[in-house]
Amino acid sequence: MLAFVDHSSDLNAWAQSLSISREAVEIYAASDVIDLHIDSFIWTRILGYDLKQRHGHGLLGARFYSQVDLPRLREARVTGGIWVITTNPIRPGLSRAHAFTENFAHLTQILESCRDDVAVVRNASEYRAARAAGKHGAFIGVQGGNAVDAAVDRLNDTIVRVTLVHLSNSRLGTTSAPGGGDGGLTAAGRDYVRALNAKKIFVDLAHINRRGFFDALEVSDRSQPVIVTHTGVSGVHRHWRNLDDEQLRAIADTGGTIGVMYHSQFLDGSLLGCTADKVVDHLAHVVETVGEDFASLGSDWDGAIVTPRDMPTCLELPRLVQRMLDRGWKADRIHKILGGNWLRTLAALRP
């Protein structure tokens, strides 16, 4: 079993350790807490970062990496998350597909080796079973659909979502990153969306440029929700990485959800870390624009991000609830944002 502190035995002490109210930890502890984008496995691949070992803040003070590991996630009572296999775009196509197969097996083996604490899950019912058993429900996702190019059959039903592109263009479409251009989704990318629909794998429109975003929605099965797992919103801070209000409405119209990420530069432009209030600013804009049923958490933990300075790792996540309470938000809205909105979206596609 993983070694961690179970704070549920003393909520007062937990609240005091984080300098927040008991109400905040009560709401948090009663919630499904699900993160739509955890990128820690990339450091396992690059540096041998042990996901089963409890780490400190690392060499860079929890900047860029060492924000998450399985013991700390359990201690933070993060009840579910999408663990991501990020594609290396430099590899040639056949090599990428082979690497994806190996990485999928490696990540799955790590998660399944912690059976007392973690269950790999594919749908809403499997997640709820894991939750009832007191386990972390680990979904698996792919960042960069060119991991397998056109060979979508390599994506088995354990894969819950695929981000079509990442930080570079591919044969599928155009990134939103600077220099990507305005090419949108290619014909191969359109076919890829249709193939994901057929396999009931969520189309994730994080990272794609605006034209490609709407190209994907044009061809996607209108009976299936589309998601954006980790983003900021331009209504709070204009940035190439963030979604505008029209894009928020388009995702809500499909019944999907929008995960707000924790990278300070995307939240307010700061380089050394903003505060958790900025995360709530972005969540609030989603709520004000499309309603409280469409905002979720999509941290991008360990995705080379600089987190809010008062929420450097997953252990401080309950502070986010306090910031929501400080704005007068009710428990029902908070429960939805922490995990309920993702579960609604998931159940619509994968009950």
UniProtKB/TrEMBL annotation:
<dbReference type="InterPro" id="IPR032466">
    <property type="entry name" value="Metal_Hydrolase"/>
</dbReference>
<dbReference type="GO" id="GO:0006508">
    <property type="term" value="P:proteolysis"/>
</dbReference>
<dbReference type="Pfam" id="PF01244">
    <property type="entry name" value="Peptidase_M19"/>
</dbReference>
<dbReference type="GO" id="GO:0070573">
    <property type="term" value="F:metallodipeptidase activity"/>
</dbReference>
<protein>
    <submittedName>
        <fullName>Microsomal dipeptidase</fullName>
    </submittedName>
</protein>
<dbReference type="InterPro" id="IPR008257">
    <property type="entry name" value="Pept_M19"/>
</dbReference>
